[in-house]
Amino acid sequence: xxxxxxxxxxxxxxxxxxxxxxxxxxxxxxxxxxxxxxxxxxxxxxxxxxxxxxxxxxxxxxxxxxxxxxxxxxxxxxxxxxxxxxxxxxxxxxxxxxxxxxxxxxxxxxxxxxxxxxxxxxxxxxxxxxxxxxxxxxxxxxxxxxxxxxxxxxxxxxxxxxxxxxxxxxxxxxxxxxxxxxxxxxxxxxxxxxxxxxxxxxxxxxxxxxxxxxxxxxxxxxxxxxxxxxxxxxxxxxxxxxxxxxxxxxxxxxxxxxxxxxxxxxxxxxxxxxxxxxxxxxxxxxxxxxxxxxxxxxxxxxxxxxxxxxxxxxxxxxxxxxxxxxxxxxxxxxxxxxxxxxxxxxxxxxxxxxxxxxxxxxxxxxxxxxxxxxxxxxxxxxxxxxxxxxxxxxxxxxxxxxxxxxxxxxxxxxxxxxxxxxxxxxxxxxxxxxxxxxxxxxxxxxxxxxxxxxxxxxxxxxxxxxxxxxxxxxxxxxxxxxxxxxxxxxxxxxxxxx
Length: 498
What we know:
The protein has 21 helices and nine strands. The chain is an alpha+beta fold. α13 (about 330-350) crosses α21 (about 480-495). The chain is elongated. This is Diguanylate cyclase.
């Protein structure tokens, strides 16, 4: 009986014998469906390994005892980062706490952490899930690129591109959030740059941008600790301050004045900054932000009107000083032109008011050059056509500057026309003959003579004889022939007196 149950030819238990393949199978061809299932299982297993190998995420396996280890070959995806994470005790302790919750609740959980790698902060997202066999799968994804992109997009939507502080949209959203809310001690401050359009028209928009950037830094330094600082217009800034009294604003404005005075007195920039400001205070109760903003705006413009004229004159004086520093034309140049033009004027018996205008013109005719880039103004070679077109704009720039100054307004039209030629080939208006003011016709001769007889960045000085002959050769084309004749009569006396 026992022999009946003892196999005489015991067969080795193998995969083939189990699923019914070959002569050694237990039950030949009876379990073809088992063979199919096993092949499917192997295919799924192979596919899973391939998927894990291609996943860029870090995969870890944990259990309810708190043990965490790399899952299969996933450590090869980025072993350095994996090791850094597993060596960080704070991160691992946090992961174990989350795993405990996942094991207890048996639901998918997420966790986020940051880690400094190679002096760069990385952002990671962790997803933790438990299987039916109580294995805890931990998937860690590096979200640095995504977070960086999201921050960039948020900055584009909420930050001003030039100053990198909050923009008008962010400012208005912040106001909408508190509108018609019961709020105590709310202050809106508005600050405006005085004369920015004037700077843009004379020195150019690149310098105007520097004014805006510098102003934003001063305002941010003085106000950011109290509230939200935003650029709400081309030359206007707004600040929303909560839980502060007006005394705080007055203190911050005083700090701002001190900082601006130090900057302006240093004279390191070709411009000075002047600001107008106003603020409105809401003590308590339901706030109407539109009304509060309008009150602050009215107070700011009242402050601006009180000093508008003095600010413009101050800006002109700043540009005059900038011309002395920036231009190759020295004080000696203007003195020499004044002396020679005075001799010509006296020879012509000109009235004193004309002589006074000539004196101002010799000093300030090139003030528009403050708006010309140094790369053109001081180029040690002849200008190309494009550069020459830029250089010629100094006449119109100079006119704008002079019109803003009570001292120079009377000669603004002369500054505009001081490069016109007798035969009409000058600029910017193409005037000819006696349509050109006499002050400009005299300046044309004395300026040319002094320029030719002194060194310039692009050439050495010519001899006096050569310069006189050059002016005489251009009589009737570039210069008024009658004034050239007067010039030749007084030049010897001028040279002797010099």
